[in-house]
Amino acid sequence: MTSAIGFRSERGPILIALMLTMGVVAVEATVLATAVPTIVGDLGDFALFPWLFSVYLLAQAVTVPIYAKLSDIFGRKPIILVGIGLFLAGSILCGFAWNMPALIVFRALQGLGAGAVMPMTITIAGDIYTIAERAKAQGYLAAVWGISSVVGPTLGGIFSQLEMWRGIFFINIPLCLLAAWMLIRSFKEKVHKRDHRIDYAGAALLTVSMSLLILGVLQGGVSWAWDSWQSIGSFTIGGLLLAAFVLVQTRAAEPVLPLWVFSRRLLLTTTLISLGVGAILIGLTSYVPVYLEGSIGVPPLAAGLALAALTIGWPISGAFAGRFYLRIGFKSTALLGLAVALVGATVLAVTASAPSVALVATACFVIGLGLGVVATPTLIAAQASVEWGDRGVVTGTNQFARAIGSAVGAAVFGAIANAAFGSEADVPAAAIISGGSAVFLAVAVVGVATLGAVVAMPATPVPGRP
């Protein structure tokens, strides 16, 4: 391998393939949020719409550590190709969904695919680039989010206004096929093979326990009362199964989520940071469009562009994150980024009672700028602390935490919003504003908690730092 970085370098085709593969999932993350009001108007069941995000994120979250472990066994390439295939199948089925429950089920299939795609793209980048090289390569990967932030909301808004929301999912077909073809053609890897034992019991316990806990949070106060047998049962059984999962992980030969990851201060704190970032992201992407469209009646395209400011700010700062952490270190960079993000989150929460597209867009842009220099340095710090054989698990754990943060965040924020929205089919603007204000305040609180994790993060040396 040469040290050159870019499209024309020896690793250029792999970089392009990774960018395209990441783009497939990145576009989906922004395109659906702007179309929620249109989808609900067509399929009904407004109270179920948070599940469009929660079930996708839950399926993604519980499978990330499984895929990560399998990638350390069989290699990154076959796992990412399986993920693309599942995401493609889910997208096609979503396009043909006949009601909200069906769409939710098919979104879960998409999530199963995304659970492999996102961590594998990041792990592969960690495999082929050194720490110093990733400071430059990150600029290319960050550009994916910038392009997606414009393409996603724009497509979502256009399809929604044309009443063709199903096209949101069908657009993934050529993207998935092209991404798979490029990876098959360009990415060759050498797998360090050794005997492994897959932790099936741990995987099953993790999936069922988290599903029950998310179910309890999301449906409590909506489909049933918080003190009903359904809520009590979901939390009790889910909690017991989660405890059983932890016990199994202490005894499994090769646990799906090794507990040693949480015994190291650096890995524990970076995992908690990723958890907070995931919750912040879902709180904004899920409710900014609904808030703007429902409160002041802006069209989906305008709401989408306001949200796009978040994912425009992220890659702009993310492109420079490598320069920051090579100069001032991982921890200082993350502290700087989260401080900026908190400013934006505070502005959004304080001004939510007076809806304004320009103000929301500005706040989202500032939050994105901050998060762009939080997520990357903390992940790379975690990756740099382990060797190849554990890099998949460490990366997977970090991405698992972000997905769990998003899944739990979607459930909690959904419960907060539904408490304000009520059960009426046509939710009044005042209720939308009240629910949005509560969600944005909760996002700011999560930001403060995440700051605590950054403060606790050890100041580790940066490999390759001059």
Automatic annotation (TrEMBL):
Q: Where are the transmembrane segments?
A: 12-36, 48-67, 79-98, 104-128, 140-159, 165-184, 204-226, 232-253, 265-288, 300-321, 333-352, 358-382, 403-421, 427-456
Q: How does it sit in the membrane?
A: Multi-pass membrane protein
One Pfam annotation, family name? MFS_1
Q: What is its main location?
A: membrane
Q: Do you know which InterPro entries this protein is assigned to?
A: MFS, MFS_dom, MFS_trans_sf, Tet-R_TetA/multi-R_MdtG-like
- Family, as annotated: Belongs to the major facilitator superfamily. TCR/Tet family.
Keywords, ordered alphabetically: Cell membrane, Membrane, Transmembrane, Transmembrane helix, Transport
Sorted alphabetically, the Gene Ontology cellular component annotations on this record are: plasma membrane
* The keyword Kinase is annotated on this UniProt entry: no
Which sequence ranges form a coiled-coil region, renumbered to this chain?
none
* Domain of life according to the entry: Bacteria
Where is this protein localized, as stated in its record? Answer: Cell inner membrane
Q: Does the keyword Transferase apply?
A: no
The name this protein goes by in its record = MFS transporter
* UniProt domain Major facilitator superfamily (MFS) profile: residue ranges: 14-461
- Organism classification: Bacteria, Bacillati, Actinomycetota, Actinomycetes, Micrococcales
**Which PANTHER family does its entry note?**
MAJOR FACILITATOR SUPERFAMILY (PTHR23501), VACUOLAR BASIC AMINO ACID TRANSPORTER 4 (PTHR23501:SF191)
A GO molecular function for this record? Answer: transmembrane transporter activity
